[in-house]
């Protein structure tokens, strides 16, 4: 009876771990998932994380229990030829994964492509994990007083408990996304006229965007972006990631953005390229 219970619990734990593991493998990066309010099968990123962690511990617990119940058989396995084969295979996989060697690297890159294939927000966050910022801080970033920000949101039917409430909390309270709350503030921002200027924030994920996506964010035609890069001696494909283009040319992603915008720092970017 006990063996059946342990085996079934181990099976269900493994099943949930398998499902949640696949979801975690393909879900968008946190900066996109949190900002856009991403969900899958009705669960958001944090809920999938919680499922994976809790059932991971359950699997460890019942796996250890299962090991104790079958200890004699396990000891016999250690004496068989399969012990050496399984140990060697485990070491190879571990070393390959840590060293980022093919085919493990290809598998991880495949997952990265899936993560980056999810729709990007129309409006990028002003800083990494801006959804965790209180409304008062976000208001200052768009040139508004906290009181003004509260009034603007309430006039649009958005419930705001206080200026100290985070964008994520406001979004959850109103069944919307942090990105939408931020977009409403941008619509009345005195800095709106300069909203076409895109600034690179380390950790914001801008470097993972393709050149084509960055040009769309900048609202600059792709052919114009490519021409500006060529003038700096930089050859790039539209589907290449910004950080890949930058690192291949001895630059940082923010310097590429400056070049694409044709801003006053173009000379600095060119110097960095040389």
Structure description:
This protein folds into 3 domains: 116 residues, no CATH class; 65 residues, no CATH class; 68 residues, no CATH class. The chain is 63% helix and 1% strand. It contains 15 helices and 2 strands. Strands 1-2 form a two-stranded antiparallel ribbon. The longest helix is centred in the N-terminal third of the chain and has 25 residues. The chain starts with a helix and ends with a helix. The C terminus is likely disordered.
Keywords summarizing the entry:
single chain, transmembrane, 2 strands, mainly alpha, transmembrane helix, 274 residues, two-stranded antiparallel ribbon, 15 helices, 3 domains, membrane
Principal-axes shape call: flat
Separate helix tally: 15
Q: Please list the strands of the largest sheet in the order they lie side by side.
A: 1-2
The percent range for strand residues is under 5%
Uncertain residue ranges: 193-198, 264-274
Helix content: 55-70%
Major sheet size, sense and barrel closure: 2 strands, antiparallel
Task: Give helix and strand order, one letter per element, not per position.
Answer: HHEEHHHHHHHHHHHHH
Total domains: 3
End-to-end Cα distance, whole Å, is 73 Å
Coarse structural class = mainly alpha
Query: Using only CA atoms, what is the Rg?
Result: 25 Å
- Counting DSSP E segments of at least 2 residues, the number of strands comes to 2
Average pLDDT, rounded to a whole number, is 85
């Amino acid at each position: 009876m006990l063996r059946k219970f342990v085996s079934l619990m181990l099976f269900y734990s493994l099943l949930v771990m398998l499902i949640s593991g696949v979801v975690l493998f393909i879900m968008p990066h946190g900066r996109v998932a949190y900002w856009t309010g991403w969900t899958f099968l009705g669960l958001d990123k944090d809920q999938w994380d919680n499922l994976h962690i809790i059932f991971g511990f359950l699997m460890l617990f019942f796996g250890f229990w299962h090991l104790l119940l079958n200890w004699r058989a396990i000891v016999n396995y250690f004496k068989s030829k399969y012990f050496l084969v399984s140990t060697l295979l485990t070491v190879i996989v571990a070393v390959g994964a840590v060293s980022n060697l093919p085919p493990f690297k290809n598998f991880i890159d495949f997952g990265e492509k899936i993560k980056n294939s999810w729709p990007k927000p129309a409006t990028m966050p002003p800083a990494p994990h801006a959804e965790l910022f209180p409304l008062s801080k976000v208001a200052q970033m768009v040139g508004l007083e906290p009181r003004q920000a509260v009034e603007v949101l309430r006039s649009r039917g958005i419930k705001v408990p206080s200026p100290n409430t985070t964008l994520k909390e406001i979004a959850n309270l109103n069944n919307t996304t942090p990105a939408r709350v931020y977009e409403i503030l941008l619509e009345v921002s005195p800095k709106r006229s300069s909203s076409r200027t895109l600034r690179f924030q380390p950790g914001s994920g801008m470097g993972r965007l393709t050149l084509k996506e960055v040009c769309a964010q900048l609202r600059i035609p792709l052919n114009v972006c490519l021409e500006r890069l060529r003038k700096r001696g930089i050859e790039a494909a539209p589907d290449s990631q910004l950080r890949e283009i930058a690192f291949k040319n001895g630059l940082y992603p923010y310097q590429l953005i400056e070049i694409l915008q044709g801003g006053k720092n173009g000379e600095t970017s060119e110097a960095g390229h040389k």
